[in-house]
Amino acid sequence: MARISTAVRFALLMVGLGFVIFPFVWMISTSLRPEREVFALTLWPSEIMWSNYRDAWRAAPFARFFLNSFIIAIVGTGLAVYLNAMSGHAFSAYRFRFKNALFLTFLATMMIPGQVTMIPVFLIINSLGWVNSYAGVIVPGLASAFGTFMLRQQMGTLPRDLLEAARIDGCGELGLFHRIVLPLSGPVLAAFTILMFVAEWNAFLWPLIVLNKPQMFTVQIGLQRFVGQYDVTYSHLMAMSVLSLAPILLVFLAFQKYLVQGIATTGIKN
Questions:
Q1: DSSP assignment letter at 229
Q2: How does pLDDT run across 220-251, given as a tens digit for each residue?
Q3: Which of 6, 22, 96, 162 is deepest in the core (most CB within 10 A)?
Q4: What 8-state DSSP symbol labels residue 47?
């Protein structure tokens, strides 16, 4: 019975894995197919068309689109991680009036759908003159209730003895944050960095609202070039979709080792 149970679990795992992997296999396969074989019931194309990537790249200024996406994703992720780390540290390490009420109010904003606030936020962005600018896309997403909560939960586990010892040694609050809190929060910062980069890179609706000049479009908006009123060029669309996944994979490979590392030991015994 134990062997049968193990076999059933393994079979279910393989089925689930197939559902996860199949869309990516289909995307890569379609990106290499002739357009006439897009809907063919075969796993791999009869003729590999590497030219789909070249033609898709030339169909629109994707070099500019990728540059815009990189600027928005890198700057937005860096600022969001830093600001939310400061917010999480403030909520975990300091005592001030209405601290819990303010934190709960901040968390309550997670229950408000983003579609509800899009019009008011756009009016603010428009009044600041940030339409068709990187700031208009980046700034509204910097404050994240989820990020603050995630970082606060981890930073609250740091030994207070270490923080107090640093203050006694003359370390200022900013020095305490940069030299002790951030280095000891490496794994959670890496995890939040991956989540933020993926969210910034894949963002579609908000950039579509704020950006209306083609030279400011991101990759995700640029993919709409292959979607016409009556037809879709699937081979080109999938080719550029495959290329758009590369930065996400690189970021994951760069930070994945930090996800499995524990917080560095402090050497302090309580």
A1: S
A2: 999 988 887 777 888 899 999 999 998 888 88
A3: 162
A4: S
